[in-house]
Design goal:
Its main location: membrane. This protein has about 525 residues and is of the alpha/beta class. Helix content is about 55%, strand content about 10%. The chain folds into three domains: about 1-150, no CATH class; about 155-225 and about 500-524; about 235-490, Phosphatidylinositol (PI) phosphodiesterase (TIM Barrel, Alpha-Beta Barrel), CATH 3.20.20.190. It contains 21 helices and nine strands. An eight-stranded parallel barrel has the order 1-2-4-5-6-7-8-9, surrounded by four helices.
Amino acid sequence: VVRRRLLQRYEHQPFISCLAGFYSCRWKRYQRRRTEPGKCCCKMRECVFFPLLVGAFCFSLVFLYMWGEAKNDYNNFDWYNYGNLGFWFLWSLVLLIVAAILFMYIALLLVLAMCLLAEGQQLYLHWSHKIGTFLVLGFSITGLFILSVLWGDQWKTVRLSFQITAPYLHIGAITIMILLSWPVALHAIRADKKVVQVIIIGPYLAILLFLFLIPLGMYSPCIREMGTLGPKPALIGHRGAPMLAPENTEMSFQKTIEHGGDGLETDVTISYDGIPFLMHDSTLRRTTNIKDVYPNDTTQNAALFSWDTLKELNAGTWFLKDKPFSCMGSLSRADQNQAMNQSIYKLSNFLRLADSQNRLVIFDLYRPPEKHPYRNSWINRTLEVILNESGIRPHLVLWLENDMRSFVQSVAPGFQQTMGSKAPVEDLLMDNIVKLNLAYTEMSSEDIRKYAEANITTNLYVVNEPWLFSLAWCSGAHSVTTNAVHTLKNLRQPLFLMTPQQYNIMWILTDLTSVLLISLIFAL
């Protein structure tokens, strides 16, 4: 008899039982009578906690979006952590996975809560989920705060991303508002007090109106008239092709050339005996086997070693061991063997390779530390190698170093003088600047166009993601420095490109369709 009564009570509502089980861990003790729409649907404690659940969802969504769009700079994040922790690990990928899992968890709880409300059930979030909600909220807020303090430029990346994703985010947000219109209408129309109706409908309509009008304030250089898109930006390999080969090695630059790169970028340091060589870090710890050969010298500045010592170090085995990029893919056996036998590359050999393949070169030139023999003659020694030892044609050199620029122009007038920061056009022309080398976060189609009118081209660094490359293309950039020549070379047109008329039609149709659907739902 007892079993028959239990079956009569619970088996006729399995859906609600499942919802309550996941949300409240009450697999059979769901509310027997439905709460009428418009009535209080939960206890005061749960009413207070529900906004926290919504807040956790919002903050986790913002963090996930921010970190997802920061993928272009994951290698910089991992390199920063390597400098602090002393070992290489893909922390950026771990952080992305954790953020995605936490967002999906909190989104599931919110969906369960909305379903329970739609079914007229009281909300009772289990204590374990409440702890989980606080953890998600704390993780998201802490993550956003730390990234804002240590890596504030990522907010510029987020703002740039809106120029590509905003139309699709708008459609997604409108879709969510349509789905929410059913429970909102159900509870608002049947509410017995006008105040309750205003509290329910007011915020909903305010958000909906905001979403309808927000496209008016949207700007994207990829929304342009047909036929006005400029040529595809040239591709300059950042330290070669560091996703395919060890950075700043001969193999890396050869890979860039094989995949159609238009230029080569590198970093130049001068050895203790005056041989310029390619090395990005101030020490040899990350990209060589210095730890195995000279374990007591791992923290010594790379410029304090002689070339005889440097040329004996292996500069490739670390690449196969640490896998510096999460999206590297697998290497062929031949490429693995070639990578394992790479050594530190001399500047003179690098320039000869570029000249033989007719490729542009641009490099950061590092001044040696105190007490270095070439501390005060570093530029002279570099020029000596470029002009007398390498034989590279001067017009292939994009000279970036700002110190002694007038002297460099006098001895090497054929160099393409390049500035690493924005400045008034008049000042740039006075210094014979023909190219700007800017961080992609400084991207501005208006500035690029202004400089182009004065015959000053713009190179943006470091651009790895297709969406960011698409934005640089639409903005009119002449070239980009990238780690991903092999993928960007295959991009035939920007990922997002439409005319203003097409965008207006999409926007208006989306809004009109949503108004029609929401009106029908409220009418029913």
